[in-house]
Amino acid sequence: MKILVLNGPNINMLGIREPHIYGSNTYQNLIDKIQDYCDKKGVDVSFFQSNHEGALVDAIQQAYFDKIDGIVFNPAAYTHTSVAILDAIKAVSIPTVEVHISKVEERDSFRQISYIREIAIKTITGKGFDGYLEAVDALIINNESKN
Ligand code: DQA
To answer: Pocket of ligand 1, candidates 102, 103, 105, 124: which has the most ligand atoms within 8 Å of its Cβ, to mutate?
Structure first.
């Protein structure tokens, strides 16, 4: 099984950005944690982070051609603004789990909108980096139910 872990803008700044919200661990720590978990689960995982909306759309389209089975996706601020990202996920029909490190539902009103929630098979918020591992599990279960 092949999973893509996709992260949107400012996730590369983990450890530096608002540590009281996102913690003190870095993006590299996040990747290492997910890589270890996927190694244990026998999942082939790849990673992509971008601060650019179009680059994220390109990565979602590429996932189709790379025959990716599931996407773990933290679109970060684009969650709340991007129809293009929603359309890209719809276009490729790849099961996608929406992840947020923080508890977005307890934050600013502009964070209450999620354009991708309607297409996501699951949304996980407020569980820190562990939310990404839970998303991997959800995609594994989803994939097993198809086979
Ligand atoms: C975030 C929440 C978003 O509202 C914010 O713009 C982010 C990160 C999270 O992981 O909690 O950049 O997606």
So the answer is: 102
